[in-house]
Amino acid sequence: MYDFKPAAPLASDELYRELLGAADALTAGEPDAVANMANVAALLSEFLPDLNWAGFYRVAPAKTGGVDELVLGPFAGRPACIRIPFGIGVCGAAAQSRATQLVADVHAFPGHIACDAASASELVVPVLRNGAVIAVIDLDSPSPARFTAADAAGIEALAGLLADRI
Ligand code: SME
């Protein structure tokens, strides 16, 4: 059994240092992308308080072929929408712009996709490999304005670590 969860609430810097260390330990030397995303989704959900969804959308071809879109990957939370076109919703905005989306109030975000009515704020970070987006990491919270710049920086560091492991 792996027990990576911090024993007590940690300050943000320390929390992300531990989270990255655990993610590194679990994914180092493992080439299977699904296994790595699954373990990291579980870590996110264990480490970060006040989330109702944590996981991945991967860039993959549309069902009809051709254009790429975001396709649901490993996650912790309620069942979610499976396919999201680039440019749609918070995840699609992150994929299209290749930039982190820190959204304090999802209901004010144009085109927000409500997978879980409980979600109030959201953080989506693109995973870039050689400058191209290969996935996004999506965190949802039932609390408004749950995510800070420190969360964005921590998840961006995680995305950097995972770029060649997923
Ligand atoms: N709310 C997201 C969709 C994904 S779910 O939150 C899991 C969005 O607007 O992109």
TrEMBL record:
Transmembrane segments: none annotated. PROSITE patterns: UPF0067. GO terms for molecular function: L-methionine-(R)-S-oxide reductase activity. Pfam families: GAF_2 (PF13185). Residues 55-164 form the GAF domain. One of its GO terms (cellular component) is cytosol. Belongs to the free Met sulfoxide reductase family. This is GAF domain-containing protein. It comes from Erythrobacter ramosus.
